[in-house]
Amino acid sequence: MERQVVILCVEDEAEVREALLRDLQPFSAVFRIEAAVDADEAREVVESLDGEKADLGLVLCDHRLPGTTGVDFLVDLNGRKGAREARKVLVTGQAGLEDTVRAVNEAGLDHYIAKPWTPEALQAVVRNELTIFVLAGERDLKPFLPVLDAPRILEAIAQRASDQ
Amino acid sequence: MSSTSRKALIRGLIIGGLAAACLILPFVVETGLDAMGRRVLAIFGLAVLLWVTEAIPLHATAVLIIILNILLISNQALIPFAEGSLDEGRPIPGYATFFHALANPVLMLFLGGFFLADGAARFQLDKSMARVMLRPFGRRPSLIMLGLMLITAVFSMFMSNTATTATMMAVVLPVIVALPAGDRRKIALALCIPFAANIGGMGTPVGTPPNAIALGALARQGLPISFLLWMVMIVPFMLVLLAAAWQILDRLYPCSVKELDLDIRASFDTSRPAIIFYATFALTVGLWLTEPLHGMNSNVIGFVPVVILLGTGVFGVRELQSTQWHVLWLVAGGIALGSAVSASGFDSWIIGLIRFEALSGAWILAILALVALGLSTVISNSATANLLVPIGMTLTMQIEGINRVQGAVFIAVGASLAMSLPISTPPNAIAYSTGVVKSKDMILVGAIIGAIGWLLFTWVAPMVWDALNLMPTPVAPPPAG
User: Fold this and answer.
1) What is the CATH number of the domain that holds A34?
2) A154 vs B381: CB contact, 8 Å cut-off?
3) pTM of the prediction?
4) Could you tell me where the beta strands, DSSP code E, fall in B180-278?
5) Inter-chain residue contact A162 with B426, CB threshold 8 Å
6) Radius of gyration of chain A, Cα coordinates, nearest whole angstrom
7) Complex ipTM, two decimals?
């Protein structure tokens, strides 16, 4: 693959983080999965991608983080070049209405997953968001076929691809 | 990251070094070519290098060839040919000859094909038709596979093999997922689509770019082949090959269940633009198939849907822009290369290098198809045809006792027969990327189908064509260009 697509999980509680990473396993064959314990570490991950052949594709973010909130982090991220196109998902049980509205309006929030989640529901959201992300960019779609939404990927291939 | 960038650097240096060698060697080594032949040898060498390595995109190589032809061998050459440096009687081609390749009539045929294919995808005619056409094949696994293969082949006769594969894969994937784990039929179902698409592409002049490259070269030699004649020559053998592929897959990969469930619900778009499109599609294909009745040639007919769909507003600027011009330009690069090769005498020279006297005409043609098959297994089918057709055409023109049409046609067919690796064709790559198929399955079945196809087309078909007296007789070639 030309450029890697990265999934970033931001979650301070070790147990929850591990549960998230476990549920994301089906995507690990095609996507690079990164985890961060707080907003600072998450920013470092995002900054480190600048120098690499990698794009931030999806952020799964807890709301309550040490020293800040997930929504603040996502708003900040939405202003960054290279991270604006990334799909943004809050994974939380504790974001109030006001925070959530701000996340939608200012951070470009794409989805809200309430804790506790089921692996199937989480994977369905991740599959959909990543499908939207890879279809929006100019890239070779074939590698995503086994893990993402196959009918939509195939339809896009049919429109773009040609015999050579 | 540093190791990958170092690799890229080394690769760049190697390709750059080879490119320099291609450009310098023809002028320092004694070859027996005249000044123009040496320059064309340099261009041809560079074309081989770039089309094989894909160091730059295929279509970029094509436009590079056009400008190099103009700047090196045309009447606009930067360094004009010195007095006496050319063989006697060799005219210098006008630079417009090479630009004309971009609007070669056969590209209009293809443009029409693209409009029909794009419209079929836009109005989802392909999806709906596939489901309706699958109904008569029932629920038995082996009949369903036959149905899938026939429909895929028919579609890829008019649409690109790649788009057809993607569309039909969407139909077949749910069936594959529903089969019990470990069922070998999954592999057959995933392979049958790309194989049928590759085979189906042979069926019409618009089926796949190598066909256009062959037709363009034949037309330049005064051997125009009509849409209908191409189909009459190719389709019967294409169907035999398809049946063989079906039987091989059916036997090698048995199914553990008695019946398969297939989604065959179809709904057709009945909006006004869709209806106009259906009518245009039917009219165009109808005209292509009835050329003997009205005499309009297939290239001219290809422009008809372009005019109707743009005129009625069914296609607008956006659709026009999303047409796959890069494929047309790739073909144009091959046509320009062909003009340069035959204008310079380079073709006769390269053929003189190889000892053909020991072989019969039929063997020479069969080997030509085999080389096309082998080359296009690892590089692009169109690039294969672009490189081989100019040489193959000259070869068949010079050898007595073989039909002149066959060289170009066999190269096009040979290129389409290459389907044993995931990289052989985009349809194979799609099937492989589903993860259902392993390389070894593709290599095994792909190689068997390639071998059967080669035997069928290069040994059986010519006998039938001769017996039916199908081959066209040459007419006067059009004026230079």
Assistant:
1) 3.40.50.2300
2) no
3) 0.90
4) none
5) yes
6) 16
7) 0.85
